[in-house]
Specification:
5-stranded mixed β-sheet, EMP70, 16 helices, 49% helix, alpha+beta
Length: 634
């Protein structure tokens, strides 16, 4: 059999490691955190990114649209990993902006649009696609005011056009009025130099105007003739694109808080309502746990601790009878241990990322930073995955620790990778910018095989070297027969209870997260997310411990898998709510975006299941060890 020479294998390993580390380093690329100063007459670049819609989850690169004006040579901007995965395709435009100089009307180009391209434009306008342009790392925004008409807020992006559904006519926005808001910054060190300015706002006011091929539209007319598109399918159409620029001095906002207008969501009261609702649910569960655990459990412990307890009374008591079976290794423990390890890995990644965002370290100016940092942390947390998987595998008397480590490192990530790759094939066919490029797929694979998997094995090595977690009781050789269970402990009822209660804690916050993910809206309420997350963890632990305690009292010792499944059972409600959001909030009529939404929602629900299933499992494990340590056994 042919074998590669050793030097080839070493070179390949080195290439994989260098590419992986290079991508990880690129993921932490952060733009300049300080303000960029412009002087009078200095050229200010304008970048175009993508077009997105709140009705369908497929974005498109702006310069992939055949009906827009494009430069002769596209100059693309370096993107970090998070930007690539979220569908960003930032490119320098041919709009000419000069700091401090107003431009009344500039002709960009006259574009001859073919019938098929005009139909594409009409379809995008009907679906309310918004264009994202960028100046000084600020996205162009549509402005609006809140109820008191005094506070200006921004909605990122501006529409490609508008559609009259009564006449089935689409109108293209072929003129844009750009308002650049700036803050004057005097140069105290060089008094004679021109005054500098920092950009604090970027507003876009699009117009649809029917104009000729050689000049600008007559913008003094109150209602100029609009530019229809995609309504005549048998001939081409010539459209002149133009723009005007106005520099506006704004002293009401500084460079430090220029993102406040983008992040002013106006739903703070709803978030507080969600927090109060979650707190009440948690308090109610805490009361139930207090009654059950402090009264019933203390009574049971007092009875079990009496040395003069009669033999016939022992036979009538519930959970102590399971002392010889409660720590019996579960069936398919070789599968449960890797799932628990991956759950710990996802939990540490999600918790650390959310905490960094809540502390303001991951600011919105770091485009794609949240996703980049999350992926890097997921890779680095592989060592925790291998460690806890190996420790539980050793508890269940497993000996093939390396095999368990390989399953931990490749099973769950493999499921995610195969699902994303399969969906990506369909997205590629739609020419959407959310399709992951082949090079990025290669880098992700190299990172997985070159960094994440070795870290999992390293964590498993250390976990296997630890002492086996001791149990307060010994396990009998013959398992105890399980009596018929009460109706409320049957799987469907228990799953509904343990899933519905935690979902009631997070369903309000879930709406805003889904809106941010699928409708490309900014979400920066991470302080609320931290609070809701803590309440959710407490709720999951409480409801799972209560159900498992009732199960033990009913003499059912098979709790390992049940605690894991009960803890993550609200993932079912999360997926169902996601599909409800899909049918009520999105207007998807094509197969590919529907497939992408469904598969990604399933993966998100699966990740939640692993996270909180692991939280519930380890909490229940600790609880059961404690109660059996507190009783006297003959």
């Amino acid at each position: 059999m042919f074998r590669w020479p050793p030097w080839v294998a070493r070179m390949w390993s080195l290439v994989v490691l260098v590419l992986s580390l290079g991508q990880l380093a690129g993921s932490f690329y952060v733009p300049s955190v300080g303000p960029q100063y412009f002087t009078q007459g200095q050229s200010v670049p304008l970048y175009v990114n993508k077009v997105t819609s709140d009705q369908t989850p497929l974005p498109y690169a702006y310069y992939d649209l055949e009906f827009v004006c494009r430069p002769d040579q596209l100059k693309r901007v370096w993107l970090n990993l998070g930007e690539v995965l979220r569908g960003d395709r930032i490119t320098e435009s041919n709009y000419q902006l000069t700091a401090g100089e107003n431009q009344t009307c500039e002709v960009l180009c006259t574009k001859v649009i073919q019938p098929d391209d005009a139909l594409q434009a009409k379809e995008l306008i009907k679906k309310n696609y918004q264009a994202e342009w960028i100046v000084d790392n600020l996205p162009g925004a549509t402005t609006y005011r809140v109820r008191d008409h005094s506070v200006k807020t921004y909605e990122p992006g501006f529409p490609l056009g508008f559609y009259n559904k009564f006449t089935d006519v689409a109108y293209l926005h072929n003129h844009v009025a750009l308002h650049i808001l700036y803050e004057p910054v005097p140069d105290t060190q060089h008094p004679g130099t021109p005054s500098r300015m920092s950009i604090v706002g970027f507003e876009v006011y699009p117009l649809s105007v029917q104009n000729n091929q050689v000049g600008c539209p007559n913008l003094t007319v109150e209602s100029p003739p609009r530019q229809p598109i995609g309504n005549v399918v048998d001939r081409e159409i010539a459209v002149t694109y133009s723009y005007s620029v106005t520099w506006v001095q704004d002293t009401t906002v500084s460079w430090r808080n220029r993102w406040d207008r983008y992040l002013s969501m106006g739903y703070t009261s709803v978030h507080w309502y969600s927090i109060v609702n979650s707190v009440f649910v948690s308090i109610l569960l805490a009361g139930i746990v207090a009654v059950i655990m402090l009264r019933v459990l203390n009574r049971d412990l007092a009875m079990y601790s009496e040395e003069d307890l009669r033999e016939d009374q022992l036979e009538t008591i519930g959970w102590k009878l399971l002392h010889g079976d409660v720590f019996r290794p579960p069936s398919l423990g070789g599968l449960l241990a890797p799932l628990l390890g991956n759950g710990v890995q996802l939990l540490f990644m999600a918790g650390t990322t959310t905490l960094l965002a809540a502390l303001g370290i991951l600011s919105p100016s770091y485009r794609g930073g949240l996703l980049s940092v999350a992926l890097v942390l997921y890779v680095l947390m592989g060592i925790t995955s291998g460690y806890w998987s190996a420790r539980m595998y050793k508890v269940w008397r497993g000996t093939a620790w390396l095999k368990n480590a390989l399953i931990t490192g490749f099973l769950v990530p493999g499921i995610f990778f195969i699902a994303v790759a399969g969906v990506n094939l369909f997205i590629w066919s739609s020419n959407s910018s959310s399709a992951i490029p082949f090079g990025t797929f290669f880098v992700l694979s190299a990172t997985w095989f070159g960094i994440s998997a070795p870290l999992v094995v390293l964590g498993a090595f250390f976990g296997n070297r630890q002492e086996t977690i001791s149990h307060p009781v010994r396990t009998n050789q013959i398992p105890r027969q399980i009596p018929p269970q009460p109706w409320y402990l049957r799987a469907p009822i228990s799953l509904f209870i343990t899933g519905a209660v935690p979902f009631g804690v997070i369903f309000v916050e879930m709406f805003f997260m889904l809106k941010s993910i699928w409708q490309d809206k900014y979400y920066y309420m991470f302080g609320f997310m931290v609070l809701v997350g803590l309440i959710l963890i407490i709720t999951v632990i409480e409801i799972t411990v209560v159900i498992i305690y009732f199960q033990l009292c009913s003499e059912n010792h098979r709790w390992w898998w049940r605690s894991f499944i009960f803890g993550g059972s609200s993932a079912i409600f999360i997926f169902l709510y996601s599909m409800f959001y899909f049918f009520t909030r999105l207007s998807v009529t094509h197969f590919v975006p529907a497939l992408a939404f469904t598969v990604y929602s399933l993966l998100a629900a699966f990740a939640y299941f692993l996270c909180f299933g692991s939280v519930a499992f380890f909490s229940t494990y600790w609880f059961i060890r404690k109660i059996f340590q507190a009783v006297k056994l003959d």
